[in-house]
């Protein structure tokens, strides 16, 4: 009874620290005793300050701005985001302890150093929501934990979820830093019929519909990125990189295959190439004949062989075809699109097969022989 009276008179003897306060103490200690820089996000326009939302293209400008304007500001993340969406992004380039100027490479080592060398307390009984980055001006972004590279900050963020597996998807076992990202991810597993709000296209998932609407119909995109060659504006890095490759024969970044030396402008394209060509991944299997395909679309096109359904109808003559590509080729007849020209007599044909037949019957040579002979004669 006497102990209970003492504890009431001195409430510090019994004190409950909420999870949010534990996060706050950990973050405040990191910011107070190191030179790391918090930031809100990175967009096409640049890196956004976590305190005042000003945007800077150069990371060093953000660091200078943060040091000169927000050194003594309280980083009150609890007002900005709720617990389910908690994630703090820190730039740890040239990370140092401000008490002894020791160099550290990661936040975990910084916390261990501050605890062991300077007796700074951290709460270790909570999930870690602090994500660390090393910001550079380069278009290529590296993961600080495993050195994987990505073309966009969004792709890097998706990758970083795998290093902070606080919440796990029970369908595919992917990990996420917070509950909000897990909830958003679970939408990718929802299958149904989702119609575009702007056109007649229909998608099997809500996420595909949203991506289509964002990148196809969003004419009022907030941020743009310019081509350094001609200053054309684009709403995504992929559009800009593809433009640079097609129109200027240059690439913002080259990703070379170490097996066949092919080069790609996006890392995702290189990964897809390796899986499809070199690893021969064929995960989409036909239930009728057992043939495997790399992507589902190829399987769907293959299934036409088995069901024979002709769903693509010509609006002019009502002929029907099993493939959209075949219908497009048929439409050249109605449009008098004679794109296949004979190299001998200059007659032009709608279909390539008609050109082949013409050359063999009228000139006594196959199209392949004619083209090979012309290549050999050219300087």
UniProtKB/TrEMBL annotation:
Pfam families: zf-C2H2 (PF00096), zf-C2H2_6 (PF13912). GO terms for molecular function: DNA binding; zinc ion binding. PROSITE patterns: ZINC_FINGER_C2H2_1, ZINC_FINGER_C2H2_2. It comes from the Eukaryota. One of its GO terms (cellular component) is nucleus. Transmembrane segments: none annotated. InterPro entries: Znf_C2H2_sf, Znf_C2H2_type. It is found in: Nucleus. Residues 167-189, 194-222, 255-283, 284-311, 312-339, 340-363 form the C2H2-type domain. SUPFAM superfamilies: beta-beta-alpha zinc fingers. Keywords: DNA-binding, Metal-binding, Nucleus, Repeat, Transcription, Transcription regulation, Zinc, Zinc-finger. Its main location: nucleus. Belongs to the krueppel C2H2-type zinc-finger protein family. This is C2H2-type domain-containing protein.
């Amino acid at each position: 009874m006497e102990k209970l009276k003492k504890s009431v008179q001195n409430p510090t003897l019994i004190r409950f620290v909420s999870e949010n306060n534990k996060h706050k103490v950990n973050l405040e200690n990191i910011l107070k005793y190191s030179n790391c820089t918090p930031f809100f996000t990175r967009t096409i326009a640049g890196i956004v300050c976590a305190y005042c939302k000003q945007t800077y293209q150069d990371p060093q400008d953000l660091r200078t701005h943060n040091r000169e304007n927000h050194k003594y500001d309280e980083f009150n993340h609890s007002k900005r985001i709720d617990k389910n969406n908690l994630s703090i992004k820190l730039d740890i380039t040239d990370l140092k302890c401000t008490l002894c100027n020791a160099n550290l490479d990661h936040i975990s080592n910084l916390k261990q150093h501050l605890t062991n060398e300077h007796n700074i307390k951290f709460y270790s009984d909570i999930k870690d929501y602090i994500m660390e980055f090393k910001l550079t001006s380069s278009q290529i972004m590296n993961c600080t934990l495993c050195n994987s590279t990505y073309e966009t900050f969004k792709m890097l963020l998706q990758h970083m979820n795998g290093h902070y597996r606080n919440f796990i998807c029970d369908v595919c076992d992917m990990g996420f830093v917070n509950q909000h990202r897990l909830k958003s991810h679970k939408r990718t597993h929802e299958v149904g019929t989702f119609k575009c709000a702007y056109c007649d296209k229909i998608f099997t998932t809500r996420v595909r519909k949203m991506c289509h609407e964002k990148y196809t119909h969003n004419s009022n995109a907030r941020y743009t990125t310019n081509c350094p060659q001609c200053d054309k504006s684009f709403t995504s890095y992929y559009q800009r990189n593809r433009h640079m490759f097609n129109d200027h024969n240059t690439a913002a970044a080259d990703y070379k295959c170490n097996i066949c030396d092919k080069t790609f402008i996006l890392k995702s394209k290189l990964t897809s190439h390796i899986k499809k060509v070199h690893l021969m991944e064929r995960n989409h299997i036909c239930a009728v004949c057992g043939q495997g395909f790399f992507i589902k679309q190829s399987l769907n096109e293959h299934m036409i062989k088995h069901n024979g359904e002709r769903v693509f109808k010509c609006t002019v003559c009502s002929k029907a075809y099993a493939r959209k590509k075949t219908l497009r080729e048929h439409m050249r007849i109605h449009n008098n699109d004679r794109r296949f020209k004979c190299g001998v007599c200059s007659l032009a044909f709608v279909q390539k097969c008609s050109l082949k037949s013409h050359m063999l019957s009228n000139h006594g040579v196959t199209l392949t022989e004619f083209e090979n002979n012309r290549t050999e004669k050219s300087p």
